[in-house]
Specification:
It contains 11 helices and 14 strands. It is of the alpha/beta class and 324 residues long. Strands 4-3-5-6-7-13 form a 6-stranded parallel sheet, sandwiched between helices. Helix 2 crosses helix 10 and helix 5 packs parallel to helix 6. The protein starts with 6 loop residues before the first strand and ends in a 5-residue tail after the last helix.
Length: 324
């Protein structure tokens, strides 16, 4: 039987199927330049963490004299895909992407790759079974979300002497921080029989939704003694829910969270919250440095992990002034 050879037209070149696969397996490159025109596709701007991240990116672009094409998906994965496609159409040199969810943003990453535009993922990743660092995108820069969950679980086990009925306020369903923070926490507490998650529901990383979900779960689980929130915004919402229910946060119910915002550190100082694991939003310097290194021909590791701190009553006062 005669072997067929399929032809693919791409960028004015005609490739055989075999050579097309080889081309698409390679990471897009960029020319080394003094300044770049880059896109930053933000997922949303409805909380202090995202606002601080955006400001860090904008400040760094201004400092270096780079042009930053900024978009805000307003919490919509579909809009974020469209935002990336718009950047591709504008022929930016590279795209920084903070994916709202792991799977829906795969088409955007692949479309940028086909257009020859390298993508660097910030603070959230995409499904590793569908896209690979070093092949489909340059790298992921962010925190170790599993480690964040583990550290929160470790603190809660120690603080509660290994016994607690826990309400878990999850982040955005399908996002890598929510998936991994849940796993890290669950993996740690599973060896402590007295630590039980009695209810778990998404608060979408938002303060008011976190409050609403906490109200519902507290009513359904009056014996809850602890709340684990996937971010500080939901934890602050949970504090409001506890106070509305006539409970004393920090005394009747112990709260541990992740992010390290100023409001969270103040809540720790006020005794309403127990601890928070830092998740730094200041991506500008490291993101832009990484692109410069990539443009210079350096091999970039598949993950660049931020080193985050831990805040509790012992050090919250020391760091609250510099928190965002």
């Amino acid at each position: 039987m005669r072997r067929r050879e399929f032809l693919i037209l791409t960028g004015g070149l005609i490739l055989t199927a075999g050579s097309a696969r080889e081309a698409l397996a390679q990471l897009p490159k960029i020319t080394k330049k003094d300044t770049y025109r880059v896109g930053f596709a933000q997922t949303e701007s409805n909380n202090p963490w995202r606002i601080a991240q955006t400001k860090s990116m904008q400040d760094e672009a201004k400092k270096r004299g780079w042009q930053l094409v900024y978009t805000d998906a307003a919490g919509s994965a579909a809009k974020q895909v469209a935002d990336v496609n718009s950047m591709i159409a504008q022929k930016v040199d590279a795209i920084f992407l903070a994916p709202r969810e792991e799977k829906p943003l795969i088409p955007a990453v692949m479309q940028a790759k086909r257009a020859g535009i390298p993508v660097i993922l910030l603070d959230r990743s995409v499904d590793p079974s569908l896209a690979k660092a070093g092949e489909d995108y340059v790298t992921f820069i962010g925190s170790d979300f599993i480690e964040e969950g583990r550290r929160a679980g470790e603190w809660l086990v120690k603080t509660m002497n290994g016994k607690a009925n826990i309400i878990e306020l999850q982040g955005t369903t399908g996002s890598s921080p929510a998936n991994d923070r849940r796993k890290g926490f669950a993996d740690f507490i599973k060896d402590h029989a007295g630590m039980k998650i009695v209810a778990s529901q998404s608060g979408d990383f938002a303060r008011d939704k976190g409050r609403q979900v906490a109200e519902t779960l507290l009513q359904a689980n009056p014996t809850a003694t602890a709340i684990y929130a996937h971010n500080d915004e939901m934890a602050i919402g949970a504090i409001a829910a506890l106070e509305a229910a006539g409970k004393k946060p920090g005394t009747d119910v112990t709260i541990v969270s992740i992010d390290g915002t100023r409001d969270a550190l103040q809540a720790i100082i006020d005794g309403k919250m127990g601890a928070t694991v830092e998740c730094s939003p200041f991506f500008g310097p490291i993101a832009f440095d990484t692109l410069v290194r990539f443009g210079g021909g350096e091999t970039i590791p598949p993950k660049i992990i931020n080193q985050d701190r831990f805040f509790d009553r012992a050090n919250a006062k020391q760091f609250v002034a510099e928190a965002y």
